[in-house]
Amino acid sequence: MKLGMTDGKWPNFHGGARGGTRGDEASVRRDFWPKIRRALGRIPFAEELIAAYYCTLDPATPAHAKAILLGALAYFIMPVDLVPDFAPLLGFTDDATVLFMAINRVRRHIRPEHLDRARAFLASGRN
């Protein structure tokens, strides 16, 4: 299961002893781009994923929306997975489910400029 228990503790997406969203934010900022570049050809939801990332960086995004999105992005970058990412056809279904649930909760905070930046990244060939 994708729980990020490398240190024997449960992940903490809502504050508390392990740093909460600040710890998740640092992990997401550090690990997001390497993971997205490795997975890009295998995920049909890259635009939404990258737009969610840009939304978390936007100072106008409310803290509760950032926390929800950071939790979903942290789940995406964790190395241990409910459905292994390398599994043919099913590998990213759990990641997509978590991401789409998060996006549905905070959809109004994902602005056109976040989607535009995601599209620009995908079109740029930097991936």
Please provide a written account of the structure.
The structure is a single chain. This protein is mainly alpha-helical and 127 residues long. The chain has one domain (20-124). Helices cover 58% and strands 0% of the residues. It contains five helices and no strands. Helix 1 (20-39) packs across helix 3 (63-77), helix 2 packs across helix 3 and helix 2 (46-57) crosses helix 5 (112-124). The chain is globular. The model is unreliable at 1-19 (pLDDT under 50).
Keywords:
127 residues, mainly alpha, 5 helices, globular, disordered N terminus
List the helices and strands and how they pair.
Blueprint: H1 20-39, H2 46-57, H3 63-77, H4 93-106, H5 112-124
Give a concise summary.
The protein has 127 residues and is mainly alpha-helical. Helices cover 58% and strands 0% of the residues. It has one domain.
What is the number of helices?
A: 5
Annotation, overall tally of beta strands: 0
Amount of helix: 55-70%
Q: Tell me, what's the shape?
A: globular
* Rg on CA atoms, Å: 14 Å
Strand content: under 5%
Tally of individual domains? 1
- Unreliable spans are 1-19
Mean pLDDT over the full residue set: 78
What order do the SSEs take from the amino end to the carboxyl end, as H and E?
HHHHH
Structural class: mainly alpha
N-end to C-end Cα span: 28 Å
Main beta-sheet strand count, sense and barrel state? none
